[in-house]
Amino acid sequence: MIISIIGVGLLGGSFALSLKKKYPLVKFVGVDTSIVNQKIALAKGIVDEIVSLEDALQMAELNVLATPVDTIGKLLPTLLDQIPEGRTIMDLGSTKELVCEIVDGHPNRKQFVAVHPMAGTENSGPGAAFAELLTDKNVIICGRDKTDRDCLMLVEAFLRDIGMKIHYMNPQEHDHHLAYVSHLSHISSFALGLTVLDKERDEKAIFDMASTGFSSTVRLAKSSPQMWAPIFAQNQKNVSKALGDYIALLKKFKTAIDQGETEISLDYMTKANDIGRILAGIEKK
Amino acid sequence: MIISIIGVGLLGGSFALSLKKKYPLVKFVGVDTSIVNQKIALAKGIVDEIVSLEDALQMAELNVLATPVDTIGKLLPTLLDQIPEGRTIMDLGSTKELVCEIVDGHPNRKQFVAVHPMAGTENSGPGAAFAELLTDKNVIICGRDKTDRDCLMLVEAFLRDIGMKIHYMNPQEHDHHLAYVSHLSHISSFALGLTVLDKERDEKAIFDMASTGFSSTVRLAKSSPQMWAPIFAQNQKNVSKALGDYIALLKKFKTAIDQGETEISLDYMTKANDIGRILAGIEKK
């Protein structure tokens, strides 16, 4: 069997590496517009060969679309136009509403499985890929009812075999939740990093004074702008709402601090402490 | 020698545990208003005995004031009134301007060393204390010139012996920088946790969909409200400014997303990526 990885970055690369461990006989072919990514993906053994997009589609039983989400939206209709019968395309994108809408009604819609693994790091590119990234993590499949049963079962078998826990959701719900539990925390982190960099021109002070707490909060500010800008654009409505909620709460927090209303800020923080239960659940995963 | 730990929480407890490793002959006495903290501190071997504040002050060569910062401000003048000659008080608080102002002009001001270790976790209380918390971390001493040479040298010797790197700063500078590199990231995290909890009443969805990125960003929202409310109150002016800068940037980010100005959000994120250099420095520490 041949599997193609279209976009051999952190997620596509990690998916390939974890599958390789379980399926040593499968051949992996890679497609990437970046020569550097091609070289690293080959050198790291993520893929066995670099091929053109057209060749990948003709060769592969399963095509894994792991590019930034704007490219997924552009490529997917053409790939579905050309895909041989019985073959499967899955994506790994962080937004689902638009991509499911784009292919809705396509004669080969059933050959597409919309997949989003709840895993990532602040690093990007094939150099950052590792086989364990997806192990024990949750994965969401959207629009299951629009997908061919065999295509779905193939993808699910692979996801289970690498240790992922499968959940199902409609694309609208998915994008709504993701705005809060993922997209917003990236924006809060990018903005925190930039605020501190803007203010603290004396970098020596940041080095000396920042501790692991700052480091943890601002870690996501290292994430790839090229990956995240299209996510925010595609999930504009939900991200804007989540960001609006966040700004409104920060303003209330600021007012409480400005007016010395310690009881109010104590109340906010005490309620926020409840996130501890959620974190315990995430860290157990 | 006897050292008193006044407030046997995360920081006071960790400081005692690290000193105990280096100075097995020193006796540690603890002062705490919480019976539970007293019991845990004894059970964990953080202190050898629980004593009254008055007794601690009479017994100890060095008194370590490790309570929330509002209590530091309240206790310190009285402690300085009563402290025997030649003895030392140091604090471990996260704000320095107000506490230095309060004791400025006190006849025993010279016996006080204003100390702030750049270390912590989102957990609190003596149960969370561990000997390695302060190892290899930076520590700021404020108002060095107002401190007696012997008191200063004793404190510095202890700090160096447990592996801390000492820096000096005036209290105003300290509080200004801390607002950006520590206090702001706590507020951003508390507010993020609360925004997500408010919105995501369906906790199942958070459990399934949140990943390690969210977990990292929101980790500080578990921090103690009782510790942080007085910090925000004491550093009100700087925290308010930092929070205002952060909100202003988030609004610009939101406008860029709302108006589909991808170039602008790309630009913000690319600039924020520069935080990677700072993080590399922190993680090396």
TrEMBL record, chains A, B:
Keywords: Oxidoreductase. Residues 1-285 form the Prephenate/arogenate dehydrogenase domain. GO terms for biological process: tyrosine biosynthetic process. The keyword NADP does not apply. It holds the Pfam family PDH_C. The keyword Oxidoreductase applies. It comes from the Bacteria. One of its GO terms (molecular function) is NAD+ binding. Transmembrane segments: none annotated. NCBIfam families: PRK08507.1 (NF006307). This is Prephenate dehydrogenase.
